[in-house]
Amino acid sequence: MKKAILITVLALGSDISVAQNQDFRVLNDQLIVKQGQVLIVDVNKYILASDIGVYAFGSTYTPNKNGRTFIGVDSEKVKPGLYVVYLVNMKDGSWVGSQSSQVEVLSGSLPVVRINKKSASSQVDSKRRAKESQLISGAYARGSKSEDFTDGDFIYPLKDLFITGPFGFRAYSNATFLHRGVDLRATAGTSVLAVNSGKVVLAKTNFSLEGNMVILDHGSGVFSIYMHLSRILVKEGQTVNKGQIIALSGNTGSSTGPHLHLAFKVSGTIVDPFGSIEVINKY
């Protein structure tokens, strides 16, 4: 006999902490999240263990040591609709507890920017790119899921913000791709700030597409990525503070002019940096 699941819908405006009789709680208002943003789930400490995970959108996610779980909602793979979230044993995939929550994913309504030329990615040497991809994947693998390195709310990486390229799709003459971040106007040499405290898991130069790049691990499976830099001011393994100058903006890699490309990766999924900062800071 299959185990019965209790669908729990929590009242809007109630305390955001997990009640003693709840295994977990979805924090997003009205249990709604948009494509390209972040679903936040708190697992009650009484049930929290190393083998407990949160199941959502066909995958299992690891809570940090405090029980908070950040889940990036993929803009392409997770379609608008209703999804059930519940706890699982990550060793065997079995349900844990008797509670679940139904969340609604709304369309991200991502813009499509048409560009009358071929994408730069189609012109990159495949062997070089494979080596670069291994370096980037290795950096993410060094990140911590259990620790939380953040210091309060996330901030923005530049003092003056002007978006020149939104998070959304770019339709080139040969293909359409997701623009996996936001482009921010910045003259060469502008100070780039760490959006929150964390550890440097990558600080390398001369990537074919990203140029000079820094990746910060904020813990809990959350990373911020800074591309096209003219100068890197931190080293791999270094701990940085929120607001610290980590680099200077530039025009390196596949770039048509000086700017900063900011990206966010949450639990393995690239999400809208600004939309996700807004959601994470709310809770």
Automatic annotation (TrEMBL):
One Pfam match: Peptidase_M23
Domain M23ase beta-sheet core: residue ranges: 179-273
Any one GO MF annotation of this record: metalloendopeptidase activity
Entries under CDD domains matching the protein: M23_peptidase (cd12797)
InterPro entries recorded: Cell_wall_metabolism_enzyme (IPR050570), Dup_hybrid_motif (IPR011055), M23ase_b-sheet_dom (IPR016047)
Residue runs in coiled coils: none
Protein name: M23ase beta-sheet core domain-containing protein
Annotated organism of origin: Candidatus Yanofskybacteria bacterium GW2011_GWA2_44_9
